Amino acid sequence: MKDVKDVQLGSASIIALASALALAAPASAQTAGSNSFQSKYTAAGNYMSGDFHNHTTCSDGATSVQTLTQKSLTYLDWFIQSDHSGTGDRDCRFDDFASGQRKLWVETVGAAAIKGDPKPSGNAMWRWQSLQEYQFPVHVQQRNLANKPVFAGMEWVVPAHEHTSSSVIAGQYDAANPNAAALAQFEYCFAVSSNDTSQGGGQGWTCEISADNNAKLVNRFATDPNQGPANYNGTLSTRGINTADDGDHVKSTAAVHWMQQKYPGQSYVVPAHLERAGAFVPAQNRGFNVEHLRDWNNASPDIAFGMESQPGHQASDNRGEYSAGRSPNGSAGQWTYGGTGCYAAAESARPGLDFNGQPLTVADFAASGRFPDIPDNANPAGVTLCKPGIRTMWDAMLSEGRRYWFFASSDWHSRGSFAPFDVASTNDFWPGEYQKTWTFVRKGSETNPNPSQDIVNGLRSGNSFVAMGDLIDQMQFKACVATSCATMGETLKVRRGADVLITLSIRDPAGANLSPYSFNNPALLPLGIQLPINKPEVAQVDLIQGDVHAPYDPVQNFDQYRDPLAPATTKIAATWTKNGGLRWTTNGEYKTMAFALRGVTTDKYIRVRGSNLPAGTPFKRDADGNPLADNIGSANIRCADAACPTHVAGKFDFDVEGWSDLSFFGNPIFIDVQ
Question: Which of 359, 364, 494, 551 is the most exposed place for a label (fewest CB within 10 A)?
Fold first, then answer.
């Protein structure tokens, strides 16, 4: 415990509590692959790992529902299986990664069984039908076999925006008749690329929202025509559906209202890889700006409660499949930053502007311009600049007091140039193999168990953390005053002027993770650190704090409502490392940190992040530990060890980059001054 003195808090009670946390054993094991989901519960619940964004052959994945679910649950405690909305021509009860395995719907169920008015082209099947009638029964079968929660989600192809992880869990654990009808109707009503007006093949589905919710849309969007017709109900046909694909943000916001109206507490929408497609472009289906996240969260904070800013595809050539050349105007920020999108890992300017508020021009993208990495054919109005820093778009949301959470998922499709069960990858990692969302799942009723509700409640609560490469697999993050404490997603109420004790205990597991490589991490070699790539260690942890102000009003504060930059009060409050500055205490695999916020007089939030790469790692981290754009490391770091795999061709690329550069993020705690 000798390192405790380096925290320099001057309080015996702080040191005592930090020591107690360091010595505390976990309430129950958190090792993936335990015998059952229920066996991992404590009296109240436990942090359990899961994934909610992945793909099968029902959309553009390579594996069947059975194969994906069974493989994922070797790493995870719960699994929400999702596929794109729209259509698909392959039967996802069959794999498609070896010759002769592919099966088409017209072969397995016959063209006469395909429903819709009109039927989809090319003998495909509407997604609502494949989900409801064929895919969901496999979910039921697989969860019964695994004795772990498995249920249906969807990667919603969103009107006006990038894709979004979503679900409606109503009916999925019905004791007498488990079904996915509610989620299927949501897909039918609100997915892009669907002109089906069959009302669910005769199920009587219509897509209106209440008059009160429709009035809210009119009030918000009547003077903002770029978002689509403000009167959503007025766009519905005589069969009760709007099939237009005009890039209407109003329609996507109506979808959030629909969920809240029909399935409160049983639904969620979490934008996926939301930086990938760049800025929102009127009349197209592109990306998200901060105002769109605010609109959804205003429509229902219980449904639009977070974003998936750490994308999958972590083994791809352009990490996360983000790039400056992604059509038409590049990803927001052009690249990922330490594998995370710039909306949660860097600072972003408003689309079309630089950080001084000046309009971008084509000349800025020329070889001699300020931003030569951006293709010169990009439309300046649609380019979003990002730079390393901590005043992120996520912090802008948190600074308004929004309970808005950070998530990650695998986005599994395939292993790229490798077969699904090979150890190497040039595209994706299996769900749970690399990224895990650890969510505190409270135990449900023993007499009427519904683990899907427990998991959605856990996601909504904000009591979650995310980790890459098993850098950590346990976290206790608390803010306390006197006898009252709060953890992630919760609010600590304090008297004005109170001192708040913040403690963080993490498990940095010893031994190897799931990386197939054991040569020394190429990113650390310039620092003189020889550490096997498959045995990462936490190198730095940051505590970030921000002041909380009233939410911006979209009418009264329209300029601020569109501003993605967090206030200047957002800052790194404390940094812990192994040897310098504040130091953690170590007890076996556990690292414990403590810090005091003195004399708190304003509402605040706090959050934590950590990395296996210390501040100042060349080409990867700046002097404060902020991640740099990942294209810099790819271009400047070599994989020169004789054991480096041939598919990286000596570069810091593909899965080698993924396994070398790891991070974790904890969701925030709010502090409310009474």
Answer: 359
